[in-house]
Design a protein that fits this description.
By secondary structure, the protein is of the alpha/beta class. Helices cover about 40% and strands about 15% of the residues. It contains 17 helices and 16 strands. It is globular.
């Protein structure tokens, strides 16, 4: 390993690890070497999912290492409140030990900069304490970060109280042309029970304070995707979409092994024919809703590729009776897909998505229109971008029992695929996204950042 040495630390969620791995790979292209720090739990998942089970990625330029997250092996890491508290208790000490160990290996190996996920801002304070340059990276939309920065104003206006509880049910817009946000869908307000919400809100407020010690606040977005937001919050600097610059390179950082056989299946399908259905790493369905979606895909009579994680429902056989036999010639179901390659495939017609930011950027960077099915956190804001601001997708309406029915899914699908305007707008956005990383503003900021680290 040679070149200036950086330490990169993502928050322990799939939607954070992947973009920080993309960032690391982009930095390797600029001559850096990276120590990439996951929690022990996620490190094991990532290394198991790597095709050839290697501890190094990109030659020897990215070294995968790990520290404990503070929870016991069997504890539930989807309980974000418990996980967040354990991390803040245990990880700072472990991180300091790791940095000291690396820095003691010799002069050429010393860490010159720590890039930390903004969602774990305490890492930046450790870097500053150890006299190392510090940069924060926000893996989601700038609009959501701008919302968290606006918390003091929201408290002053009586919209939320000091522990993040929503006091007024209303729709807000931080600035003209930004996405609208329902207060009930604020990023911390849909993260589980009240205790979890309070813990995550306090953590977020602490991180917003901590990030002030960072020299840079980078964001995986592009000025042309969120111009109103970057004008509203100029301290947030766009360097994305990181995947658009190396769309078909092999990504790493996945928690599940990818089933690449679906690419061969896609090769057999006509252009613009396949509905791609994927809900990220967190979404969970109740059995009724899962069956409605399954039946809608069957009713559509279109080819579909559906990613069904082993833990997406709590029943062992969630499908309607005889379903898999009936749709065998129509659809393909996989446990986890190589999503960037799937979305770049010419046979894909649309993306039925939970609207996580990575999925949103991957769809946009490939000019694919969306059907939006947000689950939690920032996904509702992303849905507002997709449907209201960029107009490249449609929302679903729930019925009186809170279910999205098979008829509703089928109707929206026909509406989306029957209107060429969605496709045309999606292709325009693709051009904008790619232009930003290939010589545009994101590219310039990224290069300036790389130069600053080396100086």
């Amino acid at each position: 390993m040679s070149g200036p040495h950086i330490l990169v630390l993502p928050a322990p969620a799939q939607g954070h690890v992947i973009p920080m791995m993309e960032l690391s790979q982009s930095l390797v292209n600029h001559g850096f070497k990276v120590t990439f720090v996951n929690t022990d739990f996620n490190h094991n998942r990532v290394t198991s999912a790597l095709p050839d089970d290697q501890g190094h990625i990109r030659g020897d330029c990215i070294d995968l290492v790990s520290i404990p997250d503070g929870l016991e092996p069997g504890q539930d890491r989807n309980d974000l409140g418990k996980l967040s508290e354990a991390m803040q208790r245990v990880m700072p000490g472990k991180l300091e030990e790791l940095i000291e160990k690396i820095n003691n290996r010799g002069e050429g190996d010393k860490i010159i900069c720590v890039i930390a996920d903004q969602a774990i801002g305490w890492v930046l304070e450790i870097a500053v304490k150890m006299k190392i340059k510090a940069a924060a990276f926000w893996p989601a939309s700038a609009a959501v970060l701008a919302l968290t920065f606006s918390v003091p104003k929201l408290i002053d206006e009586g919209i939320v109280d000091n522990d993040g509880t929503i006091l007024k049910n209303q729709v807000i817009q931080l600035a003209p042309n930004m996405p609208t946000m329902k207060t009930a869908d604020f990023v911390w307000a849909c993260l589980g029970n009240k205790t979890t919400q309070e813990i995550m809100f306090q953590t977020m407020v602490k991180c917003n304070k901590a990030v002030q010690v960072a020299d840079w606040l980078l964001c995986n977005s592009a000025y042309d995707l969120e111009p109103a937001t970057f004008t509203f919050a100029p301290e947030i600097l766009p360097i994305g979409p990181l995947l658009a610059s190396r769309r078909l390179g092999n990504s790493a950082g996945y928690f599940w092994s990818q089933d690449s056989t679906c690419l061969e299946w896609l090769d057999q399908q006509p252009p613009n024919s396949v509905i791609y259905v994927a809900f990220g790493s967190f979404t969970v369905f109740n059995p009724t809703q899962f069956k409605e979606l399954a039946l809608a895909l069957e009713l559509s009579e279109r080819p579909f590729l559906w990613v069904v994680r082993p833990d997406i429902t709590d029943t062992s056989d969630p499908y309607p009776e005889g379903y898999q036999k009936r749709v065998a010639s129509l659809g393909q179901v996989v446990g986890w897909a190589p999503q960037p390659k799937v979305l770049a495939h010419p046979s894909i017609a649309c993306f039925l998505s939970h609207c996580g930011w990575n999925s949103t950027l991957e769809g946009l960077s490939n000019g694919v229109p969306f059907l939006c099915w947000p689950y939690f956190a920032d996904q509702f804001t992303n849905e507002s971008y997709i449907c209201d601001v960029w107009k490249v997708g449609l929302k679903f309406e729930k019925n009186e029992t809170g279910i999205i029915t098979k008829e509703e899914i089928k109707n929206k699908l026909e509406q989306l695929l029957g209107d060429k305007d969605f496709n045309e707008r999606a292709l325009k956005l693709k051009e904008l996204a790619v232009a930003n990383v290939e010589g545009g503003q994101s590219n310039k900021i990224f290069k300036n950042f790389a130069e600053w680290m080396k100086s």
